[in-house]
Amino acid sequence: MTPDTFTRSQWYAIGRLPDFEGAEAKPVRLLSQDLTVSDAAGVLSVNDADGRSLLTQIRYGHLWTTLSDTPRPLYDMPEFDEPDRRLVTVGGVGVRCSGLRCVENFLDMAHFPFVHTDILGVEEHPSVESYDVSMDAEKDEIWATKCKFFQPMASAAASGGQMTEYKYRVPHPYSTILYKTCPIREDVWDLVGLFIQPVEEDECIVHSFILVFDEENTDTGLLHFQQNIFLQDRMILENQVPRKLPLDPRWELPTRADASSIAYRRWLKANELQWGVALFNEAA
Amino acid sequence: MKLFDYVLSGNCYKIRLLLDFLELSHEKQAVDFFPGREHKSDAFLQINPLGQIPVLEDDGAYIRDAQAILVYLASRYDPTGTWWPVNDPSELGRVAQWLAFADSITSTASAARLHDVLGYDLDVAQARAGAHKLFRILDDHLANQELQGFNWIAGSNPTVADVACFPYVALAGDGGIELFYYPAIQRWIRRFVNLPRFKLMPGINIFN
Amino acid sequence: MIADNDIALWRGEDGQIRAWENRCPHRGMRLSYGIVRGNTLTCLYHGWSYDGAGACAGIPAHPDLTPPKTIRAKAYRAADSGGFIWVANPGETTAAPSIDGDWVPNRSVHIDQAPASLNELADGMGAGLMSKITDHAAIVRVPGVEGEILLAFLDMKEHGAMIHTSVPASASEDAAIAVSKLSTRLRQVFKASSAA
Ligand SMILES: N[C@@H](CCC(=O)N[C@@H](CS)C(=O)NCC(=O)O)C(=O)O
Ligand SMILES: [Fe+2]
Question: In what residue span(s) does the GST N-terminal domain sit (chain B) (predicted)?
Answer without folding.
Answer: 1-81
